[in-house]
Amino acid sequence: MNAHASRTFKSGNSEAIRLPKGLGFGVGTEVRIERDGDRLVVTRVESPAQVRAEMARLVADLRAIRGDAILPRQAREPFEFPEREA
Question: Residue 41 and residue 62: Cα distance in Å, rounded?
């Protein structure tokens, strides 16, 4: 992991930190900030459209691996609920 130094500064009524070039997520990107002891963890929040697109890519990859074969479902034994006293 590459370590970079920065300083906090005042931005309006908030404390802010400038992300060094190469560490940013892009202007306007939604992020989630979590505190972990003395650490702050900044994670990009993916939009539902991005998640759907990623899932579509994964499904396409899986179809490329297995082809158009439809796998049979395994039969399960029926589950019976035990009798209970009322």
Answer: 32
* Phi-psi map region of 22: left, alpha, beta (phi>0 left; psi -120 to 50 alpha): left
Written as six digits, the tokens of 48 are 């539902």
Q: Confirm if 16 and 9 have CB atoms less than 8 A apart.
A: yes
Task: For 47-75, write each residue's pLDDT tens digit.
Answer: 888 888 889 999 888 888 877 777 788 88
Query: Do 67 and 74 form a contact (C-beta atoms < 8 A)?
Result: no
**How far is Cα 10 from Cα 77, in angstroms, rounded to an integer?**
64
Q: Which two tokens stand for residue 21?
A: 């070039």
Q: What is the pTM of this model?
A: 0.50
The helix or strand, by DSSP H or E, that contains position 21, with its residue range, turns out to be none
Instruction: Provide the token pair at 12.
Output: 């309006």
Tokens representing 67 are 């082809």
End-to-end alpha carbon distance in the chain: 61
